[in-house]
TrEMBL record:
It comes from the Eukaryota. The lineage of its organism: Eukaryota, Fungi, Fungi incertae sedis, Chytridiomycota, Chytridiomycota incertae sedis. It is an enzyme of class 3 (hydrolase). It comes from Piromyces finnis. Belongs to the PP2C family. GO terms for molecular function: metal ion binding; protein serine/threonine phosphatase activity. Residues 23-315 form the PPM-type phosphatase domain. Transmembrane segments: none annotated. This is protein-serine/threonine phosphatase. Signal peptide: none annotated. Residues 36-79 form a coiled coil.
């Protein structure tokens, strides 16, 4: 866990956005930790992002690791959105690098160009790891990062997860897990760890690392006699696919600092109640992080002492934001008649916040 502050840093980085398909909000905060090691990414349109990269490349005289991006924006689906949460450990260098580079590697992958998105996501994770290992600074540091990312292609949802950050979806109020936490004690993870020459101690890889899959953490990826997938700690993501249906209300991506405090069901209920009370998704996200950083008044639950980052992505299904909010409110009131809900049709106010550097 590392050293903690005497008081949590509640200052947040918050943003929101949307188009005719989805609305989203992101919020992150340092919390009780002595430094911020989380990172995130939200791209509503990979087409527009690629055009931006191409323009920057034309205007720059210096190349970077992705200077050979060859895919043309005209060849992409128009409705591809990309969201990701990266929970760093032993420093934030890997999480921050991944948040800036993973989507660039993804859109240049041959499988992505062929619209084989599941294979493309897996490939991109390994290519990112390889790219970092070729970087003198990154390859020699002890930092690592979990990653949970989503790719939305029209009505198709792809979730790639590596580590113990988590993705869930609210389907008519029911919390459905879209990822599995990669803990070293899981049978398949434990088998791979031992087969690669590692061991478990106190539920941690080699007595140190609390997750069995991650980006970076290269000291656990040194066995040259086995594949990348077979390393003690692997960057191999689980990829899940889901058709987005009318009952699917919103998706949540968040690091374990949130899930250590709230269950999947509690997170879904918190967000739905906030929507029913006409709070903007950005305000709901900030409120939820504040809740996670607080001790229960009766002392029944300690605060989450980790950094915290979450993304909420609402699926509009052809509705306006107002219609979307009313739909969820109607559902929520029927399910929870005991709740005191704001019945005034006040303006839905979103907010942005920045952290002072």
């Amino acid at each position: 866990m590392g050293q903690l502050l005497s008081e949590p840093v509640l200052e947040k980085e918050t943003n929101y956005g949307g188009n005719d398909k989805v609305i989203f909000a992101i919020s992150s905060m340092q919390g009780w930790r002595i430094s911020m090691e989380d990172a995130h990414i939200a791209i509503l349109s990979l087409v527009e992002e690629l055009e931006k990269i191409e323009k920057e490349k034309e205007n720059s005289n210096s190349g970077d690791n992705n200077e050979n991006i060859e895919i043309n924006a005209n060849n992409l689906e128009n409705d591809i959105s990309f969201f990701g949460v990266f929970d760093g450990h032993s420093g934030g260098v890997v999480s921050k690098y991944a948040s800036k580079e993973l989507h660039k590697i993804l859109i240049n992958d041959n499988e992505f160009k062929s619209k084989n998105y599941e294979k493309a996501l897996k490939s991109a994770f390994f290519k990112l790891d390889d790219q970092m290992q070729k970087d003198a600074e990154l390859s020699n540091c002890e930092a690592g990062s979990t990653a949970v990312v989503s790719l939305i292609v029209d009505k198709s949802l792809y979730i790639a997860n590596c580590g113990d950050s988590r993705a869930i979806i609210s389907s008519n109020g029911k919390a459905i897990a879209l990822s599995i936490d990669h803990k070293p004690t899981l049978p398949d993870e434990k088998t791979r760890i031992y087969n690669s020459g590692g061991f478990l101690q106190s539920g941690r890889v080699n007595g140190q690392l609390a997750v069995s899959r991650s980006l970076g953490d290269f000291i656990y990826k040194t066995n040259t006699g086995i594949s990348n997938e077979e390393q003690t700690v692997t960057a191999n993501p689980d990829v899940q696919f889901r058709n987005i249906v009318e009952d699917d209300e919103f998706m949540v991506l968040a690091c374990d600092g949130v899930w250590d405090y709230m269950s999947n069901e509690q997170v879904i209920d918190f967000i739905r109640e906030g929507i029913s009370n006409r709070l903007g998704l950005s305000q709901i996200a900030e409120n939820l992080l504040n809740e996670c950083a607080s001790e229960k008044a009766d002392g029944s639950k300690k605060p989450s002492f980790d950094n915290m980052t979450m993304i909420i992505v609402g699926f509009l299904h052809g509705k306006t934001k107002e219609e979307y909010y009313n739909m969820i409110k109607d559902r929520y009131i029927k399910e929870h008649p005991e709740k005191q809900i704001n019945n005034v049709d006040s303006e839905i106010i979103e907010k942005t916040s920045t952290v002072k550097k």
